[in-house]
Amino acid sequence: MTSAAIYGCSGHRLTEAERAFFAEAGPWGFILFRRNIDSPDQVRALTDDLRDCIGDAEAPILIDQEGGRVQRMGPPHWPKYPPGEAYLKATNDPLAARELVRLGARLMAHDLKAVGITVDCLPVLDVPVPGAHDIIGDRAYARDPATVAQLGRAAAEGLLAGGVLPVIKHMPGHGRAFADSHHDLPVVHADLATLDGWDFAPFKALSDMPLAMTAHVVFDAIDPKRPATTSRKAIRLMRDHLGFGGLIMTDDLSMKALSGSLEERAEASLAAGCDVVLHCNGDLDEMRQVAGGVGKLKGKAGKRAAAALARIVGEPEPLDEREARDRFAALLAGRMDAAKGPDVGEAQA
Fold it and tell me: In this predicted model, what pLDDT tens digit does every residue of 237-261 receive, in sequence order?
C-alpha cells in the first residue's frame, strides 16, 4: 500500500539500497534535483526506474522548475527560463505578462513531460513585502496579491495544458518572512486581517488547484507555537478559510526551520493535517527515519491524491515547439539581463 511520502534520490541512477528501500517503503512519489539531472535519456531512464521499483507506472515525479535561480533542468540540454518577476518587467502589462507566463509554463511542461516528470512545484504565490528575506525575491511574479494571483493562474494553466500538475506554494504565504526557512524558523507577526488581504489572497484565488506546499513559517495570528506545516490550526485555516480542497504536502522536512527528529517532523506534519510529507536531499538514512513516522496514504488524503493525479490530461494541448520558443524569446527580447539567463529560444545542443 502507498505511503504518505515523497522522497528524493542521491544521483543520476538508483543504487541497489535505494531501490530496496523504495520498494519496501512504497512512497506516493519522488522529487528530482540538479544532482539527479544529466541528459534527457538519463532523466527518462531514472523516472522509469523510480516508478518501476515501486510498481506504479503513474507515480508522480516532482521537480522545482521555476526558472531563474530555481531551475533543476537547464543548459546545455534544456533552455534557461527567467525568474517569476521577469515576465511583468518584460511586458509592463499584467495582461501581456499573463500570456507570456502561460507560454513559458507550457514550454516547461513540454520539457518535463518528455522525461517523465509530471509535477512542477510552481507557481510561487508568495507576495514579498519590503525588507523581507530574499529567499522569495525575484521568484515572485509581482509585489501585489492581485497580480501574483493572475500570473500564478497563468502558470498553472500552462502546466496543466502540457500534462503537468502545478503545486501552489508556499501556503499560506512566505512573502512576509524575514528569515530563510532552509536555515531558520521565520516568525510573522502580522494580524489576521493584514494576512488575509495580502498573503492569503493568491492562495484563495487558486484554491481549485490540485496540489499545494506548506510554508515552514510561524504566524502568530494563527498559531504562535508551531510553523504552518505542523500546525493543526494553520492546516484547518488552509482548508476552511482559504478553501483549498486539494492535496497538501509539506515543504522539505530536512529544512532547519523544523525541530525534532525527522520521524517526529513527519508524524507532526501528518497529525496536523498534511496529506503527504516531502523529504528532498536523497540521504537514505534520513529517509528511513522519515519512513518511521509515515503511515499509509488512505482515507480523505488518499482520495485527494487520486483526484490530483486525475487532473493530468491524457493528451497535452497541441504545441508547435519551435514557433512557441521563438515567440517566447521574442516577447522577452531585450530583458534577459533582468531574467539572469541566456536566450531561451533554443536549448544548446
Answer: 999 999 999 999 999 999 988 999 9
User: What gap in Å lies between CA 161 and CA 105, rounded to an integer?
Assistant: 9
Match 482520495 to its residue by C-alpha cell: 303
Tally of CB atoms within 10 A around 185: 17
Read off the amino acid at residue 195: L
**Cα 119 from Cα 145, distance rounded (Å):** 24
- Cα 240 to chain centroid distance, Å, stands at 22
Residue 91 has pLDDT above 80, yes or no: yes
Count the Cβ atoms, other than its own, within 10 Å of residue 161: 18
Residue 131 is classified by DSSP as T
Q: Residues 195, 231, 292, 27: what is their CA dihedral angle, to the nearest 10 degrees?
A: -40
Per-residue pLDDT band for 108 (boundaries 50, 70, 90) equals: very high
| Residue that the C-alpha cell 514557433 belongs to | 323
Please report where in the chains the cell 525541530 appears, as a residue: 259
- How far apart CA 250 and CA 269 sit, in angstroms, is 7
CA 182 to each of CA 10, 215, 217: distance values in angstroms, whole numbers, following the listed order: 19, 11, 11
Residues annotated as part of the active site: 182, 251
d(CA 135, CA 133) in angstroms, rounded, equals 6
Which residue is it, cell 488575509? 196
Question: How far is 61 from 113, CA to CA, in rounded Å?
Answer: 10
Q: Which three cell numbers stand for residue 90?
A: 518584460
The string of DSSP codes covering 293-317 is T--B--HHHHHHHHHHHTTS-SSPP
Report the phi/psi class of residue 24: left, alpha or beta, with left for phi > 0 and alpha for psi in -120 to 50: alpha
Cell digits of residue 240: 476552511
Please name the residues in contact with 146: beta carbons below 8 A apart, sequence gap of 6 or more: 201
Alpha helices in 3-91 (DSSP H): 16-25, 40-54, 85-91
The candidate with the shortest Cα–Cα distance to 291, out of 276, 273, 309, is 276
